[in-house]
Amino acid sequence: MDRTSAQEWLDRYVGAWLSYDPDEIGALFSEDVAYRYHAYDEPLVGRDAVVASWVADGGEDGSSTRDAPGTYEASYTPVAVDGDVVVAQGATTYRKTPDGPVHQVYDNCFVMRFDDAGRCREFTEFYVLRPS
Prior knowledge:
Elements lengths: L2 H17 L2 H7 E8 L7 E2 L1 H9 L16 E11 L2 E11 L6 E13 L5 E10 L3
Protein name: Nuclear transport factor 2 family protein
Pfam family, one: SnoaL_2
Organism: Nocardioides hankookensis
C-alpha cells in the first residue's frame, strides 16, 4: 500500500458510505475482514457482515444508524503508510436536514491493514465529537 492507493481507497470508502451501495461497500473489504466501529468492540468478521451492518437501519450491532441522504459528508487522508498498514485521519460533518447548518463534526482516525489486492482486512475507527 502507498499513499496514493490509500487515498483512493479512502475516497471509495466515503463514496460507498454516501451511496450505501452493497457492491461498493463490499469491494472495499477482504472476505475475512475484521471491522470495529469502536476500538473496544469485538470485530464484525467477514465482508458480508460488514455490508449487512452498513446497510442496516438500527445500530443493533453497535454500529451507527443509517444516515439520511444529504445530511453528512466526510473527508479522510492517510497520515502514515507502513507496508500494509495505513493510519488515516479526517472529519465527518452532519446536518439535521440537507443543506441545513452543521449540527455536529466528528474528528476521526482509522487504523487499517490491507491485503495484497488493496482490500481492507482490518479496520478500527476512533472518533471524538468536536466541541461546538
